[in-house]
Amino acid sequence: MSLTDKHVRQAPPKDKIYFLSDDDGLSLKIEPTGLKTWCYRYTDPVTKKRARKSLGYYPEMQLKQARNERDHKKAFLHIHGIWEGDEVKASTLLFSDVANEWLNFKVKNSLGDNPRCGVLSLSKRCLDNDINPVIGEIPFNEVKRKDLVNVIRKIEERGVKEPVKKACSYLSQIYDYAVAIGYSDFNIALNLNKVLIKSKIKINYPYLKDSELGDFIKSLTGYNADPIIKKALWLKLYTGVRGAELIQAKAEHFDLDNKLWRIPAIHVKQLRRKALMGVDVPDYLVPLSDQAIEVVRSALDWSHGERYVFASPRKVGQHIHFNSINTLIRRMGYDKNKLSSHGLRSTMSTILNDSGLFKSEWIEAQLSHSDKDQTRASYNHAEYIGQRLEMMQWWGDYLHNLPTQNK
Question: Where does 90-195 sit in CATH, by number?
């Protein structure tokens, strides 16, 4: 039976990959992640074996377009006896062809996820603006190491740092992909970062020392800011959660009677990938001190009826912006070289470790850091809640008493 637009649109993901058949070899592949791909199955004129090729992704390619593409590929096969594109050898590929193919591979391998930090967007922007304009039209097999260095030098001329490092990384990834596919025998971009012109050491996430924390708390207490953003900063200080985990919090995530914040795995950096792959990952549990619970209750009262606990004061139905907390910190007088919101996690980690009262495993579990020992990681999340609750209450009391200590 032929497919309809409605069938295609409403086809749900299942536990395993499955196909919906259309006519004349066309089908729609549906993966557990929800990714939908148009495929064409045909008999190879040379090998006489059945083969399946991808035509494009839904909804970018609609049903009518997929049928037209199938007809085009079928006609090409009939005339040339080969799948269109297979006649292109590595020797005729331009660098931009391989680079864009690599980017498409990254998009597909992202399982439909576009991270908040914009990893895929940054990759595309670097290719479009910095890499392909310089070497994109050179045949891939003719690109030399000096050509890659030339790309790096041109970016360095702008006086920027992060784009240079990212370009080195992307070039190496492109050649890793090319080696794996068979376009190249070795990675000529390996260790390209060794040619970078050294600059002053940059502290990625500047944080407060113990002696500076009291002044910060007094400043935050007295600062006149949007109440919901101020509450978000307080909760981040009391719990050490990441910004993305914080701003997506909803009322149903909090179990205040048991002093727990249940963060869905899809919101947690270290667990998100597995959740997207369909793995049954339990919520990440964050124990809450009495001080943190007071902040949560206040935020819930303030944002009552809103979708998010930390609802945007300007946009209905949305949470506060990812950079709202950093903006508040800047307005309090802390520039980017003095403190970042993420640096507050380092402040908490440093003080808890220096206290000598708590095991490092408890602290790492509280910060939801990766644990290479998967068995131990599972144990951390399941068994350390009691210890972490005591630790976070100690931390809450410590912060509460700091202004008095540092007067």
Answer: 1.10.150.130
Question: Which comes out higher in pLDDT, residue 277 or 26?
Answer: 26
**C-beta of residue 107 within 8 angstroms of C-beta of residue 149:** no
The pLDDT assigned to 199 comes to 61
CATH architecture of residue range(s) 5-80: 2-Layer Sandwich (3.30)
pTM for this prediction? 0.58
- The predicted model gives 297-315 an average pLDDT of 91
Q: Do the beta carbons of residue 102 and residue 173 sit within 8 Å? A: yes
Residue that the structure tokens 């095991």 belong to = 359
Handedness of CA 292, 298, 303, 307 (dihedral sign): positive
CATH class for the region spanning 210-405: mainly alpha
Question: In three state form, how does the secondary structure of the chain look?
Answer: CCCCHHHHHHCCCCCCCEEEECCCCEEEEECCCCCEEEEEEEECCCCCCEEEEEEEEECCCCHHHHHHHHHHHHHHHHHHCCCCCCCCCHHHCEHHHHHHHHHHHHHHHCCCCCCCCCHHHHHHHHHHHHHHHHHCCCEHHHCCHHHHHHHHHHHHCCCCCHHHHHHHHHHHHHHHHHHHHCCCCCCCCCCHHHHCCCCCCCCCCCCCCHHHHHHHHHHHHHCCCCHHHHHHHHHHHHHCCCHHHHHCCCHHHEEHHHCEEEECHHHCCCCHHHHHCCCCCCCEEEECCHHHHHHHHHHHHHCCCCCCCCECCCCCCCECCCCHHHHHHHHCCCCCCCCCCCHHHHHHHHHHHHHCCCCHHHHHHHCCCCCCCHHHHHHHHHHCHHHHHHHHHHHHHHHHHHHHHCC
**Chain segment 225-236, per-residue pLDDT in tens:** 999 999 999 999
Angle, alpha carbons 245-249-251 (nearest 5°): 160
| Mean pLDDT in residue range 318-325 | 90
In the chain, where the domains are located: 5-80, 90-195, 210-405
- What distance in Å separates the CA atoms of residue 10 and residue 401, rounded to the nearest whole number? 56
